[in-house]
Amino acid sequence: MQTASATVPTFAVLRSATVHLPTTTARELKVWAHAVTSEGQAENLAGLLEVHTEAATQQFDLQLCGGQVIVPLRGGVCWINLIRQDASGA
Description:
about 0% helix; mainly beta; four-stranded antiparallel sheet; about 90 residues; two-stranded antiparallel sheet
């Protein structure tokens, strides 16, 4: 799917998502990988987050960072790839 925004109707089966970000003058990017429960509570997602910039590619274990990552930006191309970890740990 390619879109500026979307609802994922079958989120439970989503294994990965890639987001290409527009060029920006922002100096930081914050990613908070979470799902909202039916009670309205946020639950952090487990998995691997890859942040790709012109300068480097960084990988973060979302479980170790509490589902949140802040990385510096220096302009130019940036995209992220979130690879979910299922409940079995795969």
